[in-house]
Amino acid sequence: MADCVSKVELSISCENLLDKDVFSKSDPLCSLLLNTGGNQWVEIGRTEMVKNCLDPKFSKKFLLDYYFEQVQKLKFGVYDIDNETFDLGDDDFLGEFECTLGQIVSSKKLMRPLLLKNGKPAGKGTITIFAEEVKDNRMINFEVEARKLDNKDFFGKSDPYLEFYKQTDDGKWQMAHRTEVIKNNLNPTWRPFKIPLHSLCNADLQKPVKVDCYDYDDDGSHDLIGSFETNVEKLQEASQNSTEFECVNVKKKEKKKNYKNSGTLRVKLCQIVKEYTFLDFIMGGCQLNFTVGVDFTGSNGDPRSPDSLHHISPNGLNEYLMAIWSVGMVVQDYDSDKLFPAFGFGAQIPP
């Protein structure tokens, strides 16, 4: 019988989100929560924030374990980020959608309206969730630079960034990665980055890949500098022989007879490596050692008080003991000698 657990990658995009900002557009982020029973939800991930955009395509993916025999309830919450705090409670709520992972997997691509807390539609806002099973844990390490990019800004130079897309089975382009923005530079070198092989080409090195180069604008109206199509096999070859890819702006090419390109992009590194899992390390002989350190300073309170973390409880358990017990029960299976050193500090030792 086939194994009933699989890794599933979820890609998220939204359209027609509510505009909560007065002088610009919303800055959306998507939060993913997992139901742990009843009305209890725990956040398991967030996408990046996309500035000034009501139709975001998030580049960050959610990677989940899918259990066929379990009902895994998920909640996708979309927020307009107004500050740098981690708490989403002080950000504007743009809508949410609840479903099970099974519904997403069985549909492969699920598009649904976003709802407000009162159950009413969040305007015309929708969320689209695309699911793919992950069967390959290899990564592609990239180092990329560009030269002589077109200048799209009147006061200064372009602020370029790259978007990598893979082609889906229906011929559409799905974002796999977005680089950082490099300000005021027509010859940028982006920080090294990595993309899962399945995210970029489904482990098919000849599957089409599209690269777009944009000039970032604060108001969200990013200008396309140029783009090109290739595949991972050609990207690897280019990294070895210093071949450059021409970034072509089709609209500009149609208007100018002598148009050549809007700059070139060079892939300095395109290396496929295996991303080892925790299980790979354990089965390869990696050992875990559990060492306990207990703070006995007076700041923890009188052990006779129920409010103290060191409270000597009638049932023999306090919060410190429960934490040590919970972690130790898990780690002991990976510790060869089953001996756990324990240290204490800050205590007053009796004379």
UniProtKB/TrEMBL annotation:
Q: Where in the cell is it found?
A: Cell junction, Focal adhesion; Cell membrane; Cytoplasm; Nucleus
What family, per the record?
Belongs to the copine family.
Keyword Transcription, does the record have it? no
Q: Which GO terms describe its biological process?
A: cellular response to calcium ion; ERBB2 signaling pathway
Q: What is the lineage of its organism?
A: Eukaryota, Metazoa, Chordata, Craniata, Vertebrata
Record bears the keyword Nucleotidyltransferase: no
A GO molecular function term, named singly, is:
calcium-dependent phospholipid binding
Entry's Gene Ontology cellular component terms = cytoplasm; focal adhesion; nucleus; plasma membrane
Q: What is its main location?
A: other
- The name on file for this protein is Copine-3
Described purpose of this protein according to its UniProt entry: Calcium-dependent phospholipid-binding protein that plays a role in ERBB2-mediated tumor cell migration in response to growth factor heregulin stimulation.
